Amino acid sequence: MSKKIVPSKKSNKKTGLLAISGGIDSIVLLDLLANTINQRNKARDALNDLIIKFIDDNKLSKLELVYIDHNQREDTGEDIEAIKKLSDKFDFSLHIISLDLPKDCSEQLARQKRYEALEGIKLKRGIDHIITAHHADDVLETALINLSRGTGPKGLSSLRHQPDGIWRPFLYNFQHKIFITKKDILNYAKERGLLWHEDSTNKTDIYLRNRVRQKLSNLESADKTKFLNLLSDNQKLVQEIRTNTQLLESTLAIGSGTDQTYSTEIFRQLPEELKDHFLHHKINQNGFDVNKESVKRAKDFVQTKTTGKVLQLKGCEIVIAKKGS
Predict the structure, then answer these.
(1) Cβ(287)–Cβ(312) under 8 Å?
(2) pLDDT digits (tens, 9 = 90+) for 18-51
(3) Are strands 316-319 and 310-313 parallel, antiparallel or unpaired?
(4) Whole-number average pLDDT of the chain
(5) Which one of 12, 23, 65, 278 has the minimum C-beta count within 10 Å?
(6) pLDDT score at 237
(7) Model pTM?
């Protein structure tokens, strides 16, 4: 059964849920977004111009705030008090979420639970997009962390502005080599006399990101720019790969909708590199622990097995449904 798609009559204006921590990055982004939305933004500099373009291009017209308390430190009350004053000043709704996490939990678990909470508020409030204050330094840190874990090109561009997902205004023109760095954000905050509360956990070396950040603080500005240029070029490459993967997927697909059924006959005619790329993409999309061995097993299975056979991988399975499919 197919569903008829009826065009929505919903306004093209968008709403955003800004994740605000009380730290300098999100405080500056709030100030920029609020003053632009409320048409109080008269200054013209790189940061203001970027936010004006971001809001105009994406039709952002309404903002709500959310503070996620990870319960990992004793001074979150100072964050909440300061954020409440700002939400009252700009007349934005504020949501405060407290997470039940073990003490000194891993960065990975904290991130997972944070985004689950953000997604929950977004859905409950009917908001279009989550907004975060990630900037160019965060992109560089994330790329280096992922490199240390053996990532490929996709992992080097994992932190980016997502037009259909998480909005990251400071990274809006990253692919065009417009880099908003921590230094830019700090200068903006000082020039406008903004107040922020530094997260005390940022000073500990327990977390890998903090150790990477400390090493990058000694990097020369010119060297940082070179690395950011490389990451910008990589984002463009990964976007081209995504586009070509979508074309490949549509070529192999049988039927429509959410059912992931593909032609083994066409697959077997593809060049070896395309076979590997497609299977890596699908295993990564549906399962976990994707690696060369899992891709090789999947390729051998699809090319040699017949009707009714099943290959079980971690988190997903591949089924040869019928002859010729």
Answers:
(1) no
(2) 999 989 999 999 999 999 998 776 667 889 999 9
(3) antiparallel
(4) 85
(5) 12
(6) 80
(7) 0.75
Q: What is the pLDDT of residues 293-314, one digit of tens each?
A: 888 888 998 888 777 788 888 8
Own/partner pairs, 38-42, CB within 8 angstroms, 24+ separation: 38/90
User: Checking phi first, is residue 11 left (phi over 0); if not, alpha (psi -120 to 50) or beta?
Assistant: beta
What one-character DSSP code corresponds to residue 256?
S
Contact 90, 30 (CB under 8 A): yes
The C-alpha angle 142, 60, 36, rounded to 5 degrees, equals 90
One-letter amino acid identity for 98?
S
How far apart CA 71 and CA 26 sit, in angstroms, is 19
Closest CA to 150 of 290, 294, 297, 299: 290
Position 8: which residue type?
A: S
Distance CA 194, CA 75 (A): 19
| Dist CA 168 CA 262 (whole Å) | 34
3-state secondary structure of 246: helix
Report the run of H or E that residue 18 belongs to, with start and end: strand 14-19
Q: Are strands 310-313 and 60-69 parallel, antiparallel or unpaired?
A: unpaired
Name the amino acid, one letter, at 193: G
Distance between CA atoms of 196 and 1, rounded to whole angstroms?
A: 54
| Residue 31, both tokens | 């100030």
Residues composing the chain: 325
Cα–Cα nearest to 279, from 256, 297, 254: 297
pLDDT bracket for residue 257 (50, 70, 90): low
